[in-house]
Amino acid sequence: MARRLSYSARYTHPAEKLYQAHSIKQYWDDMMAGFQMISPHCEVASFTSDENGVKVVLRQTIGRDQLPPLAQTVMMKDMVITREETLGPFDPDHTKGTYNASIPAGPGSLNGWQELIPTDDGCTIRRTSEAKVFVPFVNGKLEQMILINLVDLFRAEAEYAKDWIDKNL
C-alpha cells in the first residue's frame, strides 16, 4: 500500500514571481550547482518553458555509501534519480502541476502533484507525494523514509527559491 504526505511551502513573494523563477532555466541550473556539494553528478537533463507551462527533468546521482543503511539493503549501486517536474500555464488563482521521480531498477515509485496558490501575503506551493515500495517487510519503512527525506528536500528547495528570487528577480 502506498503512503502519502503533503507539504506546503509558504512564500512572501507573489505567485507570479515564483512561477517566473521556475520558468527560467538558470534557476534550475543554479539549484543543481548547489546540489553538487552533496552529490557531484547533478544536471538539468531537459528544460521547456512555453505557453503550455514549465517542464524540467533533473538527474542526480547519490553514492550508495551516502544512502541510509536501510536503503543500502535495497540499492546495490549508486542511486541515479531522474525527477520530472511540471507546472501548467500560469493561472493567477491556482496553477497545477505534477512531479515524479524514478530510479533505474528501483524497487518502487514516487509520484505527486503540486499546486501554486496565491495567499494574502504571498503564495504557497502545496505538494502531495505518494511513495510506493515493492519490497516485502521493509516497504512501509522505506516509504516513510522516502517521504521524510522528500520533505527535507522540499524545505531546502523552498529556502533556495526565496534566496534566488531575492537575488535575481
From TrEMBL:
InterPro entries tied to this protein: DUF2505
Protein's UniProt name: DUF2505 domain-containing protein
